[in-house]
UniProtKB/TrEMBL annotation:
Protein name: DUF1524 domain-containing protein
Origin: domain of life: Bacteria
PANTHER family given in the database record: DUF262 DOMAIN-CONTAINING PROTEIN, VNG6097C
Length: 173
């Protein structure tokens, strides 16, 4: 085993993925290494954007614009909706676990609507199995739209860490 392999094995333990990484995802920093690790995992796994069939990696590829006609970083529980239910602190509203990438049209469609409203439209469009798959692929708890916001964040951090773990194992093959 090489020195680098030993360092990797020492750092990326079961406890790292179960405890440390979810804790690192408890942040509102737009430049968090944990957030970038999650995005990298989505790319490794070929995960489509939420409510889409287009892999996120296609929008981060060299030569794509990544501009307004492509994708947007979106609050899963929209920021203005959170204000209406009492979350006025940006640290609470801009949690890493509250973000996903959406194609521009989906972002506009969702706008500031509460999850309980917009998710039903996409459940109808995707079907129950398609909805479950979209949630699984995007580290969202099933029926997240019915959850208390703070519980949603806790559960999503755990699922995001599991996504990173899955991609890590894929890379270790």
């Amino acid at each position: 085993m090489t020195y680098l392999d030993k360092i990797i094995d020492t750092h990326f333990t079961e406890d790292y993925f179960r405890l440390t990484l979810p804790s690192e995802l408890n942040s509102s920093s737009a430049t968090s290494p944990a957030w970038y690790g999650y995005l990298a995992a989505l790319n490794v796994l070929g995960t489509p954007m939420l409510f889409s069939t287009a892999p996120l990696a296609h929008h981060f590829a060299v030569g794509t614009s990544g501009g307004k006609n492509s994708i947007d970083k979106h609050h899963i529980f929209p920021k203005h909706y959170l204000e209406t239910i009492g979350f006025i602190n940006d640290r609470d509203r801009n949690q890493i676990a509250n973000f996903t990438y959406l194609d521009y049209a989906t972002n506009i469609d969702i706008s500031d609507n509460p999850p309980a409203e917009y998710v039903q439209r996409y459940k109808n469009k995707l079907g129950e199995e398609g909805y479950r798959l979209a949630c699984e692929q995007n580290a969202l708890p099933i029926d997240f739209e019915k959850m208390d916001y703070m519980e949603f964040l806790t559960q999503r951090r755990i699922l995001m860490a599991q996504t990173v773990r899955k991609a890590y194992k894929e890379l270790c093959r």
